[in-house]
Write a structure and sequence with these properties.
Elements (H helix, E strand, L loop, with lengths): L6 H15 L5 H9 L2 E5 L8 H14 L2 E4 L7 H14 L3 E4 L4 H13 L3 E5 L11 E4 L1 H18 L7 E5 L5 H13 L5 E6 L4 H14 L4 E3 L13 H8 L4 E4 L3 H9 L3 E5 L2 H16 L7 E4 L2 E3 L11
Parallel strand pairs: 1-2, 1-3, 3-4, 4-5, 5-11, 6-7, 6-8, 8-9, 9-10
Antiparallel strand pairs: 10-12
Helix pairs in contact: 1-2, 3-11, 4-5, 6-7, 8-9
């Protein structure tokens, strides 16, 4: 297969196969192996922002006495996510929790998994037209609206009207990005938006886009993609200089470095999601559904704005 599953998952199935084939093993050991629930988590991409999801999903799995594996694609490709799902079908995992790189393209694979008896839920980026059981994640329409309102507030503090705003997003086909862009466009007049570009969640390419945006847009930048938040304004030298001169930036997601930036610069803000809740609630409700318990179709969390005014009163953990 082109995409190998995680070593942890393969080792788990190897152990179960060994237990199942050992005719002289104790019966209770065999029963324990059979009853162990396996849930695979598939992020859009294996980047530092999803590390919080990984750690909390595994911690929830440990607390529930189930196995949670991390099956990350090498890039933001729906085809690769679909291949991972097809491999998981072969291995007959019990559940899948996925953040979809492309809602439409991943939907057939999700449906194949459900038809094969696997319970599938989405997190972060949904596939609403698939047979997935539920979505757990941010209210992304609201997130986009909040980003737009925060951008307008920052312009107002400088007694400027919003104009020449450059949007830099991740994957154009990811459902969460589509919803955020819609929300943003509902709060900021289209005439104020000078352009929309996509980084495809490639960090180096995002840096190039940031440099181009800063050079061509001295009056404001709106970021709807989270990865640059890891290094804050130090993502590129041009962005650092831009902010130090009073440039307006609204990030998406958080990092320790970005929190320092927000505390220092009144023109820097961000929109924070609750990745911890996505991970824990996603694993919890998948496990509950596998036990025959009823679950809701959506577990939605409202994002929050973090800015120079409220950063001291808001926990970023």
């Amino acid at each position: 297969m082109k995409k190998l599953l995680s070593t942890a998952l393969l080792a788990t199935f190897a152990f179960f196969a060994f237990v199942g084939c050992a005719e002289h093993k104790k019966e209770d050991t065999k029963d324990v192996a059979k009853k162990k629930t396996i849930i695979a988590v598939i992020p859009k991409i294996n980047n530092p922002l999803f590390e919080e999801v990984k750690q909390n999903a595994k911690a929830m799995g440990d607390s529930l006495g189930i196995i949670v594996t991390w099956e990350a694609p090498s890039g933001v490709e729906a085809a690769e996510q679909s291949e991972i799902i097809d491999n998981l079908i072969k291995y007959k995992v019990d559940g899948i929790l996925i953040s979809c790189a492309n809602s439409a393209e991943v939907t057939p694979a999700i449906n194949r998994a459900v038809e094969a008896g696997i319970t599938v839920a989405t997190f972060d980026s949904d596939a609403p037209n698939s047979k997935r059981l539920f979505y757990v994640g941010t209210n992304n329409l609201l997130a986009g609206q909040m980003a737009g309102l925060e951008m307008k507030r920052l312009f107002e503090t400088k007694k400027m009207a919003p104009e020449k705003i450059q949007l830099i997003s991740g994957n154009p086909d990811a459902y969460n990005m589509i919803r955020r862009q819609k929300g943003f466009s509902e709060t900021v007049t289209p005439q104020a938006i000078s352009g929309l570009t996509y980084s495809f969640d490639i960090n180096d390419y995002a840096g190039d886009l940031i440099n181009d945006a800063v050079k061509s847009n001295p009056k404001g930048i709106q970021f709807l993609w989270g990865v640059p938040a890891i290094e804050g304004i130090a993502t590129t030298e041009s962005l650092d200089k831009y902010v130090q001169k009073g440039g307006i930036v609204v990030f998406f997601d958080t990092s320790d470095e970005l929190m320092k930036n927000i505390k220092k610069y009144p023109t820097v803000s961000t929109i924070k999601q609750d990745f911890k809740a996505m991970a824990k609630e996603g694993i919890l409700h998948l496990d509950q559904s596998l036990q025959g318990k009823q679950v809701m179709e959506g577990y939605i969390f409202d994002p929050i704005v973090i800015n120079h005014l409220n950063i001291d009163s808001i926990s970023t953990k």
